[in-house]
Amino acid sequence: MTAAPDILCIGAMLWDVIGRAPRRMAPGADVPGRIRHLPGGVALNVAVALARWGLRPAVLSAVGLDPEGQALEAEARRLGVLTDWLTRDSGLPTDCYMGIEDSEGLIAAVADAHSLEAAGDAILSPLTGPLAGWSGPVVLDGNLTEDLLAVIARDPRLARADLRVVPASPGKAERLEPLIAARRGCFYLNRLEAEILAGRACPDAASAAEAVVARGAARVLVTDGPNPASEAMAGQPTLTFAPPPVTVARVTGAGDCFLAAHLAAGLQNEPRDTALRRAVQASAAHVSGKDVP
């Protein structure tokens, strides 16, 4: 019998194809480097990181019944993620993300999450069955459509859930508007995503987090690359913590590691400042090429 999960991660589960060059790249550059195929997608990345913290995450997502989907599900299980409640569709290919990185970070990326979008609210069907009455943490990934996020914001099946929301990319940040309007969730953003939601430029993570709280969000964490990260909460002091300097070995998935470490610390009843510090340190370790814990 499958053990019950303690966290649900709802959103993208796909293959990452990451090409990385060890030097700076100009637009149109064709350079030698390394190409890796890795399990990815925000929901799955967070779930894998949570499993490393000793938790039992389950992913609610859509995968194909193609060889890619079967291999992805097997790898997710090997990494400690529960996959019993996936939506599997023989008519849809398993989704894919392609990113190009250089020594300074991400150059460009394309996310093909069309199968997740096509599956729609079918991925939520376990909330009516084996996962009914869920009241624990739920990670929501901005790869979900804005319509589905709006449904989730008012879905009675998740009325008692602790929502943790991440936009997946700046291009998808506006999809989170229904959750801000509903005043639900703790948001994990980078500074550009926060600026999009705030509707204005912000000089640093602290001002960006406070600007999104002013829009109606109850709790917001904002990262800013190698610069200090911040957490703002309605009616509470804003916290800031600077990441340690590291040599960049990868960037894809850093925000997901940040979220997982912060959520794991919260579940251990760590204070706000400790949780923020742990999240910043975990993200920096990921960027340097290390997995924590």
Topology of this structure?
Layout: E1 7-10, E2 14-20, E3 34-40, H1 42-52, E4 57-60, E5 62-64, H2 67-78, E6 87-89, E7 96-102, E8 105-112, H3 114-119, E9 137-141, H4 146-154, E10 162-166, H5 177-181, E11 186-190, H6 191-198, H7 205-214, E12 219-224, E13 227-233, E14 239-241, H8 254-267, H9 272-287
Parallel strand pairs: 1-4, 1-9, 2-7, 5-6, 9-10, 10-11, 11-12
Antiparallel strand pairs: 2-3, 7-8, 12-13, 13-14
Helix pairs in contact: 1-8, 6-7, 8-9
Order of strands side by side in the largest beta sheet? Answer: 4-1-9-10-11-12-13-14
Order of helices and strands: EEEHEEHEEEHEHEHEHHEEEHH
- What is the gyration radius calculated from CA atoms? 18 Å
- Uncertain runs: none
Q: Approximately how much helix is present in the residues?
A: 25-40%
Q: For this structure, what is the CATH class of the largest domain?
A: Alpha Beta
Structural class: alpha/beta
* β-sheet strand percentage: 25-35%
CATH architect. name of the largest domain: 3-Layer(aba) Sandwich
| Fourth CATH level, the homologous superfamily of the largest domain | Ribokinase
**Topology-level CATH name of the largest domain:** UDP-N-acetylmuramoyl-L-alanine:D-glutamate ligase
Q: In DSSP terms, counting alpha (H) and pi (I) runs of 4 or more, how many helices?
A: 9
**How many domains, in number, for the residues?**
2
For the termini, the CA-CA separation is 28 Å
Question: What does the largest sheet look like?
Answer: 8 strands, mixed
Shape, per Cα inertia axes? globular
Total DSSP E strands: 14
Overall average pLDDT = 94
Organism: Paracoccus alcaliphilus
Protein name: Sugar or nucleoside kinase, ribokinase family
Keywords: Kinase, Transferase
Domain Carbohydrate kinase PfkB: 6-288
